[in-house]
Specification:
This protein is an alpha+beta fold. The protein has three domains: about 10-210, no CATH class; about 235-305; about 315-475, Heat Shock Protein 90 (2-Layer Sandwich), CATH 3.30.565. Helix content is about 45%, strand content about 20%. A six-stranded mixed β-sheet has the order 3-2-1-4-5-6, with helices on both faces. A five-stranded mixed β-sheet has the order 8-10-11-16-15. The N and C termini lie far apart (about 65 Å).
Length: about 475
């Protein structure tokens, strides 16, 4: 018997998989996050070799869009399901944007559809993916006893059953859109995935699993900052769990608001003043979503057995590309607080090893907190300098007057009060942010290192070190030695 008039997705998968087992919420959440990360990389690699005439991948997800890589989200058609009462789409039909708008809008195609509050699917997180190469369903559900269960399947018939359960709900809440969405799904034939797809997914899953501590000297020599034994508790701490829940609850409605805002921005009949206000709403939502992502990641690190256990797919990457995206946001943050910002870059930036998306968020969050701690009229210098096998990025406030006596130009460190294990409060500005320890752990998780020094005449100077890519020849030389 189903719990409701329609089966939930966890019930659909439970009927076909006898090996599903309940586990602790933390373990199931970890399985969900690791599988989503592997799915994201699988989509990126699969879509990169897809034929130009192939339909873009279709993603049906709840409660919010699940992927963050810009190169991927711009290639997806996304339908998000929500039971939030402020969703106006529950009262009107919705039309899926045409595929031609993707390149023009530079954003993923997103639709938002309602779920009825009584529907047990409201309590599940799910993701149905349709591509020309494979179909995949992932579900995270909570049981009445508090445990959770995660399951996934590439089986075409199971994914088809999951789609039928979703389709029936769309018919209930938005029948005008049902035929259009069904036509989109029918573009993807329910063929069994090539065995190489499953192998590729398995390898990506393994890459996302926590890495064991290395013991060989030549292996540790290739890592500029080997992670020390963790001092984190292995069990969740109440304030850390509260922060995780808070970050999730804030991020979810903000993502829905941003989705609806972007849908409105696609309309051609909006007055310029309305478009400008919507752009501001989109910008503010994005800033706060990224901030919540950082808080959630910091809380996740605190509950791991080691900071290394939560490393996020480190890869050689172009720092120049990240900086080109980040510097305009840094300039905006400085301008809002009447600060000036000067960025000094070398002519050529070497390749570093990190996580592009997380590095962008962590650097932007660090800059946001840094600018909040400075008085109006201050000048900030950001300098990027090669330093041996590392790249040094330094943020330092500059003196406002060079001719003033040193005793008069000393900068008083901002007053900060601790809020639990991860947060700090700055009474002067009313700002709540991650504390220094949590921020350092974030940089460790993305392969870097953060050093903070207090200089009386300048204030806080932040120095970030990122490891440079180690060439194959250098690795061989290290092994020989």
């Amino acid at each position: 018997m189903y719990e409701w008039i329609l089966p939930s997705l966890s019930e659909v998968l439970a009927e076909s998989q006898s090996t599903m087992a309940e586990c602790s919420p933390a373990k199931a959440e970890r399985q969900w996050r690791i599988s989503l990360a592997a799915t994201e990389h699988l989509l990126i690699e699969t879509l990169a070799i897809a034929s130009p005439a192939a339909a873009p991948a279709l993603v049906l997800a709840a409660p919010a869009p699940l992927f963050s890589q810009p190169t991927l989200t711009q290639s997806l058609q996304t339908v998000t399901f929500t039971a939030k009462p402020f969703n106006p789409l529950a009262l009107m039909p919705f039309q899926m944007p045409s595929t031609a708008t993707v390149a023009e809008e530079h954003s993923s195609q997103e639709a938002v559809l309602p779920l009825l509050p009584a529907d047990p699917l409201v309590a599940e997180r799910f993701c149905l993916i349709f591509t020309e190469k494979f179909r995949l369903v992932l579900v995270l559900a909570e049981r009445k006893n508090g445990n959770k269960i995660f399951s996934l399947s590439f089986e075409p018939e199971i994914v088809q059953q999951a789609w039928r359960a979703i389709k029936a709900r769309v018919m209930l809440t938005n029948p005008d859109f049902c035929a259009e969405l069904d036509a989109l799904v029918q573009q993807y034939l329910p063929v069994a995935p090539d065995y190489r797809i499953a192998m590729q997914f398995s390898q990506l899953l393994l890459q996302e699993l926590p890495e064991p501590e290395v013991s060989k000297d030549w292996e540790t020599a290739t890592i500029p900052y080997p992670q020390p034994p963790s001092t984190h508790p292995q069990h969740s701490v109440p304030d850390v769990e509260l922060l995780q829940a808070f970050a999730h609850e804030v991020r979810t409605p903000l993502t829905t608001i941003r989705t609806m805002t972007r849908l409105l921005l696609k309309r051609r009949d909006l007055p310029a003043a309305v478009s400008d206000r919507l752009e501001i709403i989109d910008h503010e939502c994005t800033e706060q979503i990224d901030r919540m992502e950082l808080l959630f990641k910091a809380a996740e690190l605190e509950t791991c057995a080691s900071t290394k256990a939560a490393n996020t797919h480190l890869t050689p990457m172009s720092l120049n590309q990240v900086l080109q995206q980040s510097i305009p946001r840094w300039q905006q943050a400085a301008n809002r607080r009447n600060l000036t910002l000067d960025v000094v870059l070398p002519q050529q930036l070497p390749t570093v090893v990190s996580n592009p998306t997380m590095l962008d968020r962590v650097l932007t969050g660090l800059m946001e907190n840094f600018t909040r701690s400075l008085p109006a009229g201050s000048h900030i210098q950001v300098q990027v300098i090669p330093a041996g096998d590392q790249l040094k990025l330094q943020l330092s406030p500059q003196p406002q007057c060079q001719n003033t006596d040193a005793a008069d130009t000393s900068v008083t460190p901002p007053i900060r009060k601790a809020l639990g294990q991860l947060l700090m409060f700055q009474p002067e500005t009313g700002t709540i942010s991650l504390n220094l320890t949590a921020t350092k752990h974030l940089f460790q998780a993305i392969g870097g290192k953060l050093i903070v020094r207090q200089r009386p005449q300048y204030g806080e100077v932040l120095t970030i070190f990122l490891p440079l890519e180690v060439s194959h020849q250098q690795k061989l030389e290290v092994r020989k030695n």
